[in-house]
Write a structure and sequence with these properties.
By secondary structure, the chain is mainly beta. Helices cover 0% and strands 25% of the residues. The protein is rod-shaped. The protein has no helices and 18 strands. It has two domains: 84 residues, no CATH class; 84 residues.
């Protein structure tokens, strides 16, 4: 007789084949008579000798068998997460478990579930597409004196913007 290798088990004595551990369970050593549930939560079984952490953007709140659940669009979770997903930077919590992108001219630099916590771009910066996660600095030679403008404006003849992110043109 030979011992069943790690990742498999044989629950009975006598002639029979080794059985691979099911997803959500593992056997860490040779000659196992049963498999063990993956624990703690945040880990999923890969049918074998070890459990794997849920990848970034997925979570699993319970121990034992089962797969990690993917986060919906606009949200994420850290590796080995046991909690539901949280809103990405650039997204806010619009309704329970529903993240939306910050509107034009606004941003949210942090990951988290703050409701309606997008911040208006500061003067000298703009955000002209919803998919942008941050406000961009106005390029040199352009300015934006409003924090509600979607674009930066070229400086008039005889004026200049001394550096990127400038809010007004100078003589």
């Amino acid at each position: 007789c030979t011992a069943c290798p790690a990742g498999t088990f044989k629950p009975f004595t006598g002639p029979s084949d080794c059985t691979e551990c099911p997803p959500g369970q593992f056997s860490p050593s040779d000659a196992s008579s049963s498999c063990i549930d993956c624990a703690p939560a945040g880990y999923t079984g890969m049918a074998g000798s070890e459990c794997a952490a849920c990848q970034e953007g997925k979570f699993k709140p319970t121990t034992g068998s089962g797969d990690c659940t993917g986060c919906p669009g606009g949200s994420t979770s850290p590796i080995a997460s046991v909690e539901a997903c949280i809103c990405d930077a650039g997204s806010y919590l619009r309704a329970p478990s529903f993240c939306s992108d910050c509107p034009l001219d606004t941003y949210k630099a942090t990951v988290g579930n703050e409701a309606w916590k997008c911040t208006v771009c500061q003067k000298g910066y703009y955000k002209d597409t919803i998919s942008n996660r941050v406000c961009e600095a106005c390029p040199a030679s352009e300015a934006n004196g409003s924090n509600t403008s979607l674009t930066c404006q070229n400086c008039s003849a005889g004026y200049h913007a001394p550096s990127p992110g400038t809010s007004s043109c100078l003589i």
